[in-house]
Amino acid sequence: MNDRLFIFDTTLRDGEQVPGCQLNTIEKIQVAKQLEALGVDVIEAGFPISSPGDFNSVIEISKAVTWPTICALTRAVQKDIDVAVEALQYAKHKRIHTGIGTSDSHIKYKFNSNREEIIQRAVAAVKYAKRFVDDVEFYAEDAGRTDNEYLARVIDAVVKAGATVCNIPDTTGYCLPQEFGQKIKYLMEHVDGLSDGRAILSTHCHNDLGMATANTIAGILNGARQAEVTINGIGERAGNTSLEEVAMILKCHKGIAIDTNINTQKIYPTSRLVSSLMNMPVQPNKAIVGRNAFAHSSGIHQDGVLKNVQTYEIIDPKDVGIDDNSIVLTARSGRAALKHRLSVLGVDMDGEALDKTYQAFLRLADQKKEINDDDILMLAGADRTAAHAIQLDYLQVTTGMGVKSVACIGLDITGEKFEASASGNGPVDAAIKALKCIIRRQMTLKEFTIQAISKGSDDVGKVHMQVEYDGHVYYGFGANTDIVTASVEAYIDCINKFKK
Ligand code: KIV
Ligand code: ZN
Fold first, then answer.
1. Is the CB of 138 inside a 6 Å radius of any atom of ligand 1?
2. CA separation (Å) from 421 to 424, 429, 445?
């Protein structure tokens, strides 16, 4: 019988730490339920002491999800553990994930401490967490740069204290695959509690040098039996190991003889849901879930694929939930078809909300022929801005070659109407200058990205913006078939988030 690898998803904790990717509790519940349908074993739902939002999300996700273990992150600090215990009170299966930095630089600069004291603090945290839950995971932060002999002593001590999972994070994404694999092997061979099955090792790899997945696989090949991953590989800096890559590597390479519980056909819808809710585009050439992952463009490849699909394709797109026949809706599609597609994408919608989304769907279908999954998710999330104090009422822009662009804008600010016009160096510049005539604040556009979702000149354009105001950077998003309107919506989205 094959061995089993546990999948620990940290999209809602490490992934959500990315600036601009923050979700509200309702959105987190949506993602958590989709992760449950996908078959993950553990959902890291947040870091409860870090904010009331995180605390509340752990509570609500615990209530909403049945099968996966819900995990809460803490530092090796009693107060953190107390708050995590409270946040996990409704979880059917609960885990506390506690830990401390173990590399020399963490010990010296972060804790101004020494190796022995760090072991004592680690043991004390695990013992304290054990008073409340059976399932305690310990992380040795920066284990990737911790020397193996000392790391083995730490892991031995925390297993004796009761940790049943030991996480070996390559926090900075520094290790080479062979080096990381060796680290796991060394621990397996030098810690009794690992070889006798009292605890398992977990990988948690970051992608700073593009080696997160390779390191994770090296860890698994050397004995790790849990992998910490995120959907689309999102996460701090260059991100974490991506769930879809690990799941598909193990599925394709039968010789590894390790199974996961992942229902791979849910991979693509889950990827779209996370990308859409977090407004985080997936790079087109991203393995497994990128737009071009299964697109054969060269003549030689197309010819080969037509003769026998296996000549150039190692994965059947249907195995990851990409079914070209089912992802396009048109103006003739009914409410039921929209509802079904939404539920495949992880959004359960009924009644008034479905009616509203369906009306928006029909309006969009008037503007563009084919409505794809990204459009549908964008429509489903459109009411996220409904509660905003500042709304775009109308926008008219005159532009062209050899003339100055002129924009007239109307805003609704908590029910009161405002209008302004301005000229500018192009339509977006004119529209934002007009907007600034109404919202008179010292704000600076720091980043501006426009992305068309799929293809066609009638496509919905997505705009991501970062606006600096009062020493903070705010992230905004807009989506519209009119790219100037999408840009103004993104700018207004930023303004609506200003703290004062
Ligand atoms: O990267 C890391 O070390 C982490 C730990 C907190 C688990 O995210
Ligand atoms: Zn991490």
1. no
2. 10, 12, 19
